[in-house]
Design brief:
The structure holds 2 protein chains of 2 kinds.
Chain A: E1 3-5, E2 10-14, E3 19-21, E4 24-26, E5 32-38, E6 45-49, E7 60-61, E8 72-74, E9 83-90, E10 99-101, E11 105-110
Parallel strand pairs in A: 2-11
Antiparallel strand pairs in A: 1-4, 3-8, 5-6, 5-9, 7-8, 9-10, 9-11
Chain B: E1 5-7, E2 10-13, E3 19-24, E4 31-37, E5 44-50, E6 53-57, E7 65-68, E8 75-79, E9 88-95, E10 103-104, E11 108-112
Parallel strand pairs in B: 2-11
Antiparallel strand pairs in B: 1-3, 3-8, 4-5, 4-9, 5-6, 7-8, 9-10, 9-11
Classes of the chains: A mainly beta, B mainly beta.
Amino acid sequence: AQRVTQPEKLLSVFKGAPVELKCNYSYSGSPELFWYVQYSRQRLQLLLRHISRESIKGFTADLNKGETSFHLKKPFAQEEDSAMYYCALSGNGAGSYQLTFGKGTKLSVIP
Amino acid sequence: DTGVSQDPRHKITKRGQNVTFRCDPISEHNRLYWYRQTLGQGPEFLTYFQNEAQLEKSRLLSNRFSAERPKGSFSTLEIQRTEQGDSAMYLCASSSRTRREQFFGPGTRLTVL
């Protein structure tokens, strides 16, 4: 069974401080990992996917298969980063298109 | 607007009533998904369509729930004989033939009294 664990429900950091949102997964194979973000009163939106290895809004995430982790990092937090962040996993087999989400971490950036 | 749309945005109903939600995916997307999200939880998968075929259903989808995508475009999710435990945000998402990332709609918030 596939599972995504986000151990922190709430993370508070000061503006300008580094941010790391943790995500661990369980999957018997090579999954595809995503980070989604939900700003206040907005819909869930894709932040980044591990395959593209890109940086969006200063955030990066590296897939560590040995530790089965996909932590989200940003060197300097901004107030506009305050939001709910969800880590999600998709299988890589044919038909494995559903996303399995973690419970989410609420990031609060203190000015 | 080329994003995923859902209707209605809010629905309040009494226990035992039937409700139906609609989702319009991004036009060129052939896959459509339904999720349910309750307070403090991430979205949980309910079911998914590829074109008009319903290919996967979660165990969460009891026999009171039915979903359709008759022409491979919009989809409906019906809940019969609603229960208070059905109160949740129902999310729809779509994805293209070639990429796995899903694009979400704003959701329909259901409250069962």
